[in-house]
Amino acid sequence: MRGKVGRLIVTVAFGLTLAACAGFSDPYKEPEPNIYPKDYKEEILNTLASDLADPTNVRDAYITDPALTPVNKDQRYTVCVRANVRGANHSYLGSKDRIAYFFAGHLNQLIAATPEQCGNAAYKPFPELEKLCYGKKCE
Questions:
Q1: From CA 28, how far away is CA 126, in angstroms rounded?
Q2: What's the sign of the alpha-carbon dihedral 108, 115, 85, 69?
Q3: Distance (Å, rounded) from C-alpha 20 to C-alpha 16?
Q4: For residue 105, how many other CB atoms are within 10 A of its CB?
Q5: Residues with Cβ within 8 Å of residue 51, at least 6 apart in sequence
Q6: What is the C-alpha separation between 91 and 67, in angstroms, rounded?
Q7: Which is deepest, 7, 79, 82, 119, by most CB within 10 Å?
């Protein structure tokens, strides 16, 4: 009798262990990398507002629409930004291109672009960047 009860306990314990494992799924789900970045302009503006030495009075600001671009062996949404910004001494630095990389619909990186990355981009005006203010509301 003792052997049967012991086997029953082991069987029940094993069954409960399997049931417990089956009830839990992996909490980490790999994100979809190429979700269209719907708030791309806002994310770029927020990043530039904190990264630029003087984010006010930007001139000649342009931006592209998000486009899937080959990045190494993958594809990612990228956006090119061109603008003439001011340095810490408030003098203009000349027009420069930057490229924004998006992952899972959000800005992942905003860096200087090479001519190969943004040289032939179809830019359109980006007045929101020209109106960017530092700190308090600007007029």
A1: 37
A2: negative
A3: 6
A4: 18
A5: 110
A6: 32
A7: 79
Contacts of 58 (CB under 8 A, 6+ apart): 52, 83, 84, 85, 86, 129, 130, 132
How far apart CA 43 and CA 136 sit, in angstroms, is: 19
Cα separation values, 108 from 38, 43, 133, Å: 14, 10, 23
pLDDT value at position 3?
A: 59
Q: Rounded to an integer, what distance in angstroms lies between the CA atom of residue 78 and that of residue 99? A: 7
Rounded CA gap, 27 and 30, in Å?
Answer: 10
Q: Using alpha carbons only, give the angle 78, 133, 58 rounded to the nearest 5 degrees.
A: 60
Q: Which are the contacts of 132, defined by CB distance < 8 A and separation ≥ 6? A: 45, 48, 49, 55, 56, 58
For residue 55, what are the β-bridge partners? none
Please measure the distance between the N-terminal and C-terminal CA atoms of the chain and give it in whole angstroms: 89
Q: What is the pLDDT of residues 85-126, one digit of tens each?
A: 999 998 999 999 999 999 999 999 999 999 999 999 999 999
Give me the amino acid identity at 11.
Answer: T
pTM of the model: 0.76
